[in-house]
Structure formats: structure tokens, C-alpha cells
Write a structure and sequence with these properties.
The chain is of the alpha/beta class. The protein has a single domain (about 5-405), classed as 3-Layer(aba) Sandwich (Peroxisomal Thiolase, Chain A, domain 1). The chain contains 13 helices and 16 strands. The strands form three sheets. The protein has an eleven-stranded mixed beta sheet, with helices on both faces. Strands 2-3-7 form a three-stranded mixed beta sheet, with no helix packed on it. A hairpin with a 3-residue loop joins strand 15 (about 385-395) and strand 16. It is globular.
């Protein structure tokens, strides 16, 4: 089996698009949640909270280059470019020799492409469609556009699994390199903010409606939480076979040593504590690691009642009550297909710097949640060697990643 390391990372988030900016806001408990006044036009939509990113078409991307990209694919492609630059691989011949692949996901394609088809069906007129409508809308638009833009011609692994899209992408990329199928992989996920994404959760009464207090929501694990907030962004990790990385003198940020994924097989939207436990145990088993050695958990932590309670008890059952835990979604909102990669990026950065962010807005832990070491109020300095990053999605899909400091 090959060893797999992280040699490049980048993220575009509601907190900023570089680590120094994001770290400052995490340490200061400044969130990226905003009131979305434009959503007032949607009748029946209760939430007005969202977490947008500052992003537009990069100046060096021509119109021809982006014609097959909606916002979600453009986010994915540009953040992958930043990660490839960070890894020192942007112009490397290995990208085009079949030894590098892409494992990338999003909840869906871009909504502008979907709108073209919707107009046809509603108006009985194909006039709104063009040659790129489907490419922008399709579920695998992100990995396809990444591969086209950089000439990557190895394996393509599309992962469209809602909130685990990018964590599955990272996990499957890790397994692909581990088993010797590729020497490197571009892995991660992205999603774009849309009122329709918020409406999905609004119909389930799962969105926060603290519309006039955007700085006070979401509140993962807090007794006074009232639901999640939808965000957007993108995150990419460049994974590489360790010996290949060492041979070219690459900077190694962390090693991935464990990945677990499974599904509940029970309910499409209700989380299952037992299945969450299985995913974490699979990651520990894959890593050959005792649970007591995990020093910190990056929680999925969406600020929904059932999700928070199930996740906290699953974490306690596997890792014990002493485990430090916090949720980045309290700052970024739920970035859906991007969350696993953004959170992995952040947890590796924090592990290397020896501190971890608190959960924003966490004041009084819900007594129904498990008795864990919830980080709140201020950052926690932890000199650690192993961290776990967990994500759980609609459809009962669970993922758990374990990173080792190098």
C-alpha cells in the first residue's frame, strides 16, 4: 500500500479566500453569515440568512475557457488552480501523462443551466437553451471542467453526494493513490449559493430564521439553535503518493491515514447515530489507530436538532467524552458540497499551527447532546498528532477522514 500526503491546499470561503484572513476571523469569532435581502422576493421562504463568498470570473480566464462553467464549476476550477500552484504542480507534465486524476463533487450543477431547461419545459420553447446548458447543469460539471482546464487525463471520480461530496472526493482520491492507481489526485468540492438550496431545508423547517441577527446564527450544539444557514464556496486538496512528493521536494502539509464511509440505509433525511459510529470506526480501522489517539474532531455540526444530537452521541460512543470538538459551519454556514474540503483544509492548517477554533455562538450546550469537550468562547491550543474530520449527508451518507501531522 502507498502512503498518501497532502501537498497542496486552497479554499474559497465566506470568511475569505486565504488562510491568514480565515484564521483571523476564526480566532476573533467573526462569521460570514449575512442577511440576504434579495431573497425577500421568494414567497413562502422563511429564512433570509446565507453565507456568500467574494468571487467572480478570474481575469486570466477567457470567455471561451469558461463557457462550459457555471458558478459552481468556476469556483471548483479556480480553487483547484490555487491548490495546484500551492503544490508546485500547475505546469508539471504529470498532469497530462495519465497518472493524475480528479475526485471532485458538488450537490448539483449550476442553476443557470437548470433554468434553461426549466424555461423550455414551462414555455414549450427551446430558445433559452444553448450548447453548454447541460454541461453547466450536469452533476459532474466540476470534475469535468477541472480536467478540461488543466489537461488532466487520469481517472475522473464524480462525487455528488450532498454534504459529503467533497469529503468523499478526498477519501476516494486517497484510496486511488493508496492502491497505486494514480500518483496524485485533485480532490475536493464546491457549491454555489442559491435561494433554492435554502428552500430545500426550509421545507423541512431546518433553516435558521434569526433573519435580523445574522451574527448570532447558526448555533451548532447550542440549546438556543434554530436551524442551519446555507453558504457557498470551494475547497481543493492535492493528494500525492508520498515517495513521489518527496522525490520532487514538495512541501507536505499532512498525511491522510484513514477514511471511512458508509450509508444508513434507513431514511433519506433523518440521521442515524449508529451508522455515524460505523463510519468513524471504519476510518480508525483503516488508519490502524486507537480511538484514544485522536486529539480533535472537526464536527459536521449543522445546527439542526436531530443532526447535532445524533452526531454528538456517535462521537462520544467512539471517541469518549474527553474529545475536543467544534464546528466550522458556525462561521461559514453549510457550504454543502464544499464543506468537507473546506473543513479538511482548515483542520490541517490548525493542526500544524497548534490551535483550534471554538464553535461560534455556542453559549449553552443542549443537554440532549452528548457530554463532549465542546470548544467555545476562545481558541484552544492543542499540540496534536491526529485529527478527525466528519461529514454526514442526506441519503444517510457518512464520511470520516483522519489526518496525521508530519
Amino acid at each position: 500500500m502507498k502512503r498518501v500526503v497532502v501537498t497542496g491546499m486552497a479554499a474559497i470561503t465566506p470568511l475569505g479566500n486565504d488562510w491568514n484572513t480565515v484564521a483571523h476571523k476564526l480566532k476573533s469569532q467573526i462569521t460570514g453569515i449575512q442577511k440576504m435581502d434579495d431573497w425577500d422576493k421568494y414567497k413562502g421562504l422563511n429564512t433570509r440568512l446565507g453565507a456568500p463568498v467574494v468571487f467572480s470570473r478570474p481575469d486570466h480566464y477567457s470567455r471561451k475557457q469558461v463557457r462550459s462553467m457555471g458558478r459552481v464549476a468556476m469556483l471548483a476550477t479556480y480553487v483547484s488552480e490555487l491548490a495546484l500552484i500551492n503544490a508546485g504542480l500547475l505546469e508539471d507534465p504529470c498532469l497530462t501523462n495519465g497518472k493524475v486524476g480528479v475526485a471532485y463533487g458538488s450537490s448539483s450543477g449550476s442553476f443557470d443551466g437548470l433554468i434553461d431547461f426549466t424555461k423550455m419545459l414551462l414555455n414549450h420553447d427551446k430558445g433559452a437553451m444553448n450548447a453548454t446548458s447541460y454541461i453547466r447543469m450536469m452533476g459532474h460539471t466540476c470534475p469535468v471542467n477541472i480536467s478540461l482546464h488543466f489537461g488532466i487525463n487520469g481517472r475522473i471520480i464524480p462525487t455528488s453526494s450532498a454534504c459529503t461530496s467533497s469529503s468523499q472526493g478526498i477519501g476516494y482520491a486517497y484510496e486511488t493513490i493508496k492502491h497505486g492507481q494514480q500518483i496524485a489526485m485533485v480532490a475536493g468540492g464546491s457549491d454555489e449559493l442559491s435561494a433554492s438550496q435554502a428552500a430545500v431545508f426550509d421545507t423541512l423547517f431546518a433553516t435558521s430564521i434569526r433573519n435580523n441577527e445574522p451574527n448570532k446564527s447558526p448555533r451548532p450544539f447550542d440549546k438556543a439553535r434554530d436551524g442551519l444557514v446555507i453558504g457557498e464556496g470551494g475547497g481543493t486538496l492535492i493528494l500525492e503518493e508520498r515517495e513521489h512528493a518527496l522525490s520532487r521536494g514538495a512541501t507536505i502539509y499532512a498525511e491522510i491515514i484513514g477514511f471511512g464511509t458508509n450509508c444508513d440505509g434507513l431514511h433519506v433525511t433523518q440521521p442515524d447515530c449508529g451508522s455515524m459510529q460505523v463510519a468513524m470506526k471504519l476510518a480508525l480501522q483503516d488508519a490502524g489507530l486507537d480511538a484514544a489517539l485522536i486529539d480533535y474532531v472537526s464536527a459536521h455540526g449543522t445546527a439542526t436538532e436531530r443532526g447535532d444530537i445524533a452526531e454528538s452521541h456517535a462521537t462520544a460512543a467512539v471517541l469518549g467524552n474527553r474529545i475536543p470538538i467544534s464546528s466550522m459551519k458556525s462561521y461559514t454556514g453549510h457550504t454543502l458540497g464544499a464543506c468537507g474540503a473546506i473543513e479538511a483544509w482548515a483542520v490541517v492548517q490548525m493542526m500544524n499551527e497548534g490551535w483550534f477554533h471554538p464553535t461560534a455562538n455556542l453559549e449553552t450546550v443542549d443537554p440532549a447532546c452528548a457530554d463532549l469537550d465542546y470548544i467555545k468562547g476562545d481558541i484552544r491550543k492543542i499540540d496534536c498528532e491526529y485529527v478527525m474530520s466528519n461529514n454526514f449527508a442526506f441519503g444517510g451518507i457518512n464520511t470520516s477522514l483522519i489526518f496525521k501531522r508530519v
